[in-house]
Amino acid sequence: MKLSNETLPEVPIDKPGYDRSKVKIGIVHFGVGGFHRAHQAMYVDRLLETGNANEWGICGVGVLPGDRKMADVMKAQDGLYTLLALRADGGREARVIGSIVDYLYAPDDPEAVVELIAAPTTRIVSLTITEGGYTIDDAGPDSVFGLVTAALARRQERGLSSPTIVSCDNIEGNGDVAREAFTAYAEREHPSLAGWMAEHTQFPNSMVDRITPATSPEVIETVESEFGVEDQWPVAAEPFTSWVLEDHFSDGRPRFEDVGVMLVDDVTPYELMKLRLINAGHQALCYFAYLAGYRLVHDAAGDPLFAKFLQRYMDEEGTPALKPVPGIDLDDYKRTAIERFANPGVRDTIVRLCFGSSDRIPQWLLPVVRENLRTGGPVELSAAVVASWARYAEGVDEQGEPIDVQDQLADSLVPLAKSQLDNPTAFIENTALFGDLAQQPRFADAYVRALDSLHRNGARATLEQLVES
Fold first, then answer.
1. Lowest mean pLDDT among 95-104, 168-177, 281-290, 383-392
2. CATH topology of 8-264 equal to that of 268-468?
3. Distance from C-alpha of 295 to C-alpha of 292, rounded to nearest angstrom
């Protein structure tokens, strides 16, 4: 059964009980990928089920050439898609999500996007544009920044309130990062707008968490064979989900707290917990795992050696770099994290975790290093993780097979990594990524020891030595 509004009444799985024709657009979201559809759109779908949120439907917006496929799928399926929760015991739970009620592909009609954001009914603009998406160097009028600031300028001219801009990307201080980028673009292109934004536009920080691998052909086949739904682009995710959001909004908000979102005054402690334990933990796992021959995350995390290394990183280096986290049992959180990584139902790939390391390591792991250097805490394990990235970036595995290093800086990083056979600190001498860490003896010495062991002994023996020490 093809998924659409017409076939929805006959769909044989859990599905919206609300009337989608009565749902109005209140949220415009840039970057409709797997994570948004497994996370924010799922929370809004839950909210719509309460019957008290019809003004908070989502219109997705794509701006990149790669978004054309999502535009086609959203049009064919009336914005509907299947969300598959993958339990550790092999069970699966499926629901059709109905909160995305429209989708605009900006290159086809940028004016429509600007006018939608400028409409007084749009009260939130949200973003999942990746960790590297907040640079304005090459941003033009057809970019996220160009479209949103053009709309804000119209709202200023029309005497309308500002929407709240909510970043849902895995960046420390994501709201602050978004404020800085949008304000800088406004100062460049709409000089009178920046002051208005400072007074009227809120950018709450948020912490988002749900492991969501890329949709595989097997997921599409499972949705059709097990649940009887023909869905061109379903999304699969772990059962666990979390969203902590600062309660700072420009023009009202949905009752997110009714569907499990934690509203707080300051998200920083929760954000650091997630980024420095979960996200940095993924980095601690993935390069060693790939070099050791693993290709699926759950296989590596289920290996007692890797699990012990993760636990030690979280306990000895990640946790000391955190602030107190109200209402959270950190020991339980860390134990649950490793269980989540080891969930065989998710079938997340090591390659996905290794993607875009030059964005991820500086955002997630290096702040842990710097905090522990500042306080005199240990950095040996974090330095070893960086060394494992550098070894991976050489582009050849331990069997001599090529590694496809997927990184926007691969053209410069791979030659640097290869040169470290002669100059062990060549990789970390890249000050754009590492600052002065190559000149910090505690970090640099630990890094060189780990890198030397990776070259001489391999990934597994290096981990064994680190864990035993």
1. 168-177
2. no
3. 9
What is the C-alpha separation between 292 and 299, in angstroms, rounded? 11
pLDDT at position 131 over 90: no
CATH code for the structural domain at 8-264: 3.40.50.720
DSSP conformation class of 274: I
Rg, the chain, Cα only: 23
For 252, left (φ over 0), alpha (ψ -120 to 50), or beta?
A: left
Point out the least confidently predicted range of 27-31, 169-173, 335-339, 427-431.
169-173
Distance CA 398, CA 454 (A): 9
Outline where DSSP puts E strands in 171-304. 206-209, 235-237, 242-246, 262-264
Q: How far apart are CA 121 and CA 104, in angstroms?
A: 17
Average pLDDT value for residue range 414-432: 97
> Taking Cα atoms as reference points, which of 107, 200, 123, 177 lies closest to residue 359?
177
AA identity, residue 344 = P
In this prediction the pTM is 0.88
3-state secondary structure 306-319: HHHHHHHHHHHHHH
Strand partners, 61: 30, 104
- CA dihedral sign, ordered 308, 313, 316, 321: negative
CA-CA distances (angstroms) from residue 111 to 25, 115, 133, 162, 203? 17, 6, 22, 18, 24
**3-class SS of residue 81:** strand
Question: What fold is seen in the domain 268-468?
Answer: N-(1-d-carboxylethyl)-l-norvaline Dehydrogenase; domain 2 (1.10.1040)
Output the CA–CA distances (angstroms, integers) from residue 210 to 126, 168, 170, 362, in the order listed: 17, 12, 11, 21
